Amino acid sequence: MQPFGKPRILIIGCGDIGLRVAKQLVRHYKVFALTSQASRFAELRAVGATPLLGNLDEPNSLWRLSAIAETVIHLAPPQNMGRLDQRTRNLIRILSQRSNQVRRLIYVSTTGVYGNHSGAQVCETTPVHPESERAWRRVNAERALRLWAPAHGASLTILRVPGIYAQDRLPLERIEAKTPALIPEEDAYSNHIHSEDLARLVCAAVYYGKPQRVINACDGGETKMGDYFDQVADAFALARPPRLPAQELQALVSPMLWSFMRESRRVMNTRLGELKTALRYPSVAVFLKTISKNP
Questions:
Q1: Could you tell me if 280 and 196 are in contact, meaning their C-beta atoms sit under 8 angstroms apart?
Q2: pLDDT score of 1 more than 60
Q3: I need a surface site. Which of 84, 97, 254, 292 has the fewest CB within 10 A?
Q4: Could you tell me which of 178, 144, 162 has the C-alpha nearest to residue 74?
């Protein structure tokens, strides 16, 4: 590590959230961004990041990462199959090559690790109960990192994230396609965070994250999924989605979509204050008022 100049941060998985994070951090950090596509170099450089070519599925391509930065932000999702997150395992194997090199690691996980709680509240101390391979991979990544961090002198912050939304991440195609939602009495609670707020929370974790800590990075709202679709439809002057009982709806939607729709939990953000960052959009409704097409 260079004794002079800006401290270094490495972002793993620099998609939408990673780009937003990089834009905020380049003022105070030398930001490196791992990408598996050389075609993205110009996009990464445009936000002030230095691109590194490598693929988490190909460990031999990751050699540059072992001594590049003291802080790592891990945003990359697991691979699409299995219960183990091999990508995270490949990453920490490389980071372990330089003992105590990484001082801080922020991992962006998912509230899906809690599983279905039939509408009950969950918080950071609620035991994980994954009910899909997708959630199992996240649990596996969390556990691997929680073992690795203290053994290597690193401070680990895990941010569990619900549904991310933004102006370009709203379910407009679903609403326009008139895909049904569940009837209110069978509907599931959904949880949300605006993409800009999530990026700000990730940055805040760099400064304020406590060691070996889990934080639910959500707005704490308690909106049912169908009501969320109705809010978006109203904001864009679209017809609200029809409602169907669970038995009928399951037969119409994909297994992937159904896996999201059948899990109901109200995620509490009890520890969010530790990051000392107020949300710009404390609810979906607040955000939709800023873009509503209805008078």
A1: yes
A2: no
A3: 254
A4: 144
Name the residue among 108, 107, 142 with its Cα closest to residue 128.
142
Mean pLDDT of 75-94: 96
pLDDT (tens digit, 9 = 90+) per residue, 234-284? Answer: 999 999 999 999 999 999 888 888 888 889 999 999 999 999 999 999 999
Q: Report yes or no: 89 and 25 within 8 Å, Cβ to Cβ.
A: no
Q: Measured between alpha carbons, how far is 181 from 248 in angstroms, rounded to an integer?
A: 10
CB 166 within 8 A of CB 223: no
Helices (H) and strands (E) in the chain, counts: 10, 15
Beta strands, E only, 89-212? 104-110, 121-122, 155-161, 163-165, 181-182, 189-190, 192-194
Neighbouring CB atoms inside 10 A of 53's CB total: 13
Name all domains of the chain by residue range, CATH numbers in brackets: 8-167+192-221+266-277 (3.40.50.720)
Tokens of 26: 């380049």
Which of these, 32, 21, 291, 3, lies nearest to 168 by C-alpha position? 291
Bridge partners, residue 182, by sequence? 244
Q: What residues contact residue 15 under an 8 Å CB cut-off, 6+ apart?
A: 75
